[in-house]
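Blinded run. Sample ID left blank on purpose so nobody reads anything into the name before looking at the predicted structure. Input follows.
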Amino acid sequence: MAETLTTFFGDHIKRALTLSKVPGVITEQNVFQEGDPNILPILDDMVGTLALPGSGLDGLENLEELLALAESGKSCLLLTEHYSNLDLSIVSLMARLAGGRGEDIGKALIAIAGTKLNEDNPGVAAFAGAYTRIVIYPSRYMHDSNEEKDLAEIARSNAINRAAMKALNEQKVKGRLILVFPAGTRYRSWDPETKKGVREIDSYIRSFDYMCFIALNGAILHVQKTDMLNDIVTRDLIRVTAGPVVSCQEFRERIRAATPTSRDKKQAVVDAIMAELEKMHAAAEIKRQKLLRV
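Blinded prediction complete.
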């Protein structure tokens, strides 16, 4: 069965690669990338096949409320747990299958993605190409090597991020929902630090009006220590849980007010986000396990 699923995964990668128009190098000219409607059905088929019966989305009414706020001109965030390179695909499909305004919610999504998603592996890039994204150069990339980054790379990262922030400021008031993974990377069970939120997320909270937290339970793609395309594919019951709409300003001010001056207040805000996601995840997992036993 595992070999069959691996072949299934590989076949979908090949199909996506034949259609992909995703640029292999990110510059300040291409940080905003529209989703490719020709690739989307490939990802929908993959997630739909791997997700067991009973999979779906809870809290559609919260996402509908957030979408209405976005359509009124408010800037709105989706802060989402991150376990695999199919997380965006899962959120997108489960929203569109949920009924109500789910289809509109799926179309409104814009994900914030790092340059590696485009540049490190053509297969992963092809998958990402199904969805509208704004590409950034995360600050942590500058720390990935022990060698000092040259001035040209630093200048490139600055140019990409300036262009990305411009695109974000334009898109966030056009009825779109900006999806961000506050951990900044996929969770790896052997590295607890990967579930710690990145400090820069505080800047998003400061500059947006409203947000919803999204927990992801169940796994159809399991991260490995090797190449992304060696991740293990399984079938599972997937539940996406969208929490209530929260005022970014009120949330941020409440956490900052409760944080001692000796602590980093920006990190405290992000830590509070990750704690809320963990709480939602634990509650949703209890419900998911009951569904698995049905």
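Unblinding after everyone has recorded impressions. DSSP finds eleven helices and eleven strands in the chain.
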